[in-house]
């Protein structure tokens, strides 16, 4: 009988070769392969807004049901399609309706978005109220800005399972954090995300408290705005507001 003795290092290398698909423990920063560009639907055009122009969405003049035509659904990453709808919520900051993402797909690298097609903004002030309702993988809500398509945009988001507040750029479907802070994000309660972006400068607040100041030059042109979730986050949004600066 042939007996091969292996050093501990050799055993580790062999396991790595035999099991290349084993998933390491990951956190919110673990990035995966983006969806191919060919999978993206063409983006509806949106007019660039001049300084002073404001759009406000409180969803109260919309009938409960599917996402209105003024918005488009989008998805970065994998998994099934997002499910966005207008629904009534007695706890809404402005009653009676909210915008809700209700899909519970647990694909980790999956970012559903609802994007406004009514305007493109470069320098802006942007805010939204959001409530993390449920999610085993994540309970997150965010703001999208300078959105070009489903694989290229900025995102400011907060996560109730991680108790943090982070700012990313997404380039060709790969999400990279460039600023962040830790803060308490309570599930089942309404919170407010807000930011001002002028040129390459970002000032970001959570529940009225400024937590992030950062610069980034990835996206310099005007783009659409919207809201965002992650993985199986069921998240409600209300009072989405943007003003061109």
Fold topology:
Blueprint: H1 8-18, E1 54-57, E2 65-66, E3 71-77, E4 84-88, E5 97-101, E6 110-116, E7 124-134, E8 140-149, E9 152-159, E10 164-171, E11 174-182, E12 191-198, E13 201-206, E14 209-215, E15 224-228, E16 234-244
Question: Your description of this structure?
Answer:
The protein contains one helix and 16 strands. The protein has a single domain, classed as Sandwich (Jelly Rolls). A hairpin with a 2-residue loop joins strand 13 and strand 14. It is 4% helix and 46% strand. Strands 1, 2, 4, 5, 7, 12, 13, 14 and 16 form a nine-stranded antiparallel β-sheet that branches.
Fill in the keyword field for this structure:
245 residues, mainly beta, Jelly Rolls, nine-stranded antiparallel sheet, seven-stranded antiparallel sheet, 1 helix, 4% helix, globular
Coarse morphology = globular
Percent of residues in β-strands: over 45%
Q: Please write the string of helix (H) and strand (E) elements.
A: HEEEEEEEEEEEEEEEE
CATH homologous superfamily title: Exo-inulinase, domain 1
When the domains are counted, the total is 1
How far apart lie the N and C ends?
78 Å
Report the biggest beta sheet as strand number plus sense, adding barrel if it closes: 9 strands, antiparallel
The rounded Rg comes to 20 Å
> Taking all residues together, what is the mean pLDDT?
88
SSE-based structural type = mainly beta
CATH topology term:
Jelly Rolls
Q: For the record, what CATH class applies? A: Mainly Beta
Q: What is the tally of helical segments?
A: 1
**Strands, count:** 16
CATH architecture: Sandwich
Poorly predicted regions are 9-27
Give the fraction of residues assigned to helices. under 10%
